[in-house]
Amino acid sequence: MLQLIFLMLSVLSLSFCGEIVATTYPVYYPLKYLVGEKHRLEVLVRSQADPHHYELTPKDAERLLGANLVMTLGLESWEWRLLKNLPKGKVVTLSEGINLLKRGSFPDPHVWLSPKEYRVVVRNIKDALVRWDPSQRAYYQERYSQYLQRLNSLDRKLESTLKTCSYRTLVSTHRAWDYLSRDYGIKTLSLSGVHAEEEPKPSEIKAIVQTVKREGLKYIFAEVGQDRKVADFIASQTGTRVLMLNSSLFPQLNSDDYFSIMERNLRALREGLGCR
Ligand SMILES: [Zn+2]
């Protein structure tokens, strides 16, 4: 009997200070801030390469099964497969209420690159945490308010900077910036589709070279962690230089979080688009 009680207690205490897995960095950073020291937290996809084509490994499957809660944006096909394979109630999707852009019949997952739209994701994270662990409601609410304030101030900074740019077209190798484009009034022109390994057609490269020349752009953009061959080729054809953007939010420094990476992105955009 005692043994049984002990077992029950250990199970209870395990689930009480349980572990959460965030599938990607855009989920991980705000979740980490909201959770503080209350729960252990891990990120599933740690590779710097294109996070859109993640393949579940047996070790990762183990981590997911061992977690008490899994949070995922739910906008990629690999996330939909996860959802099907994990017990219901263990996985929370965070896409509810997002004003999604579509690529054909698929959603564009890069919502985090517009702080305006990302606010919906962060609110969903807070709501899910409160539902899962109501004993800490006040704490999560307080941390959420702080995070929201920082998001709002980043939003104002992006808005005031991007409206002053001499160049209004962001030419990038990865089609990640359409939310930023929609919400902050710049145009985007991208070489590849949402998936990094989609090779651009020669006709697409030619069209971009023409646009870059016509608009007299000084810089084009490539992605941290992704192949920049095509960007370098276009730069050589147009006399432009290549600046780096980080759209996956993969940490380049140990101390990186959402805000430090977005500040770096903003600095690159400011230089590349000639903003004040
Ligand atoms: Zn991407």
From TrEMBL:
Signal peptide: none annotated. It comes from the Bacteria. Belongs to the bacterial solute-binding protein 9 family. Keywords: Signal, Transport. The keyword Signal applies. SUPFAM superfamilies: Helical backbone' metal receptor. It holds the Pfam family ZnuA. The keyword Signal applies. One of its GO terms (biological process) is metal ion transport. It comes from Hydrogenobacter thermophilus (strain DSM 6534 / IAM 12695 / TK-6). GO terms for molecular function: metal ion binding. This is ABC-type metal ion transport system periplasmic component/surface adhesin.
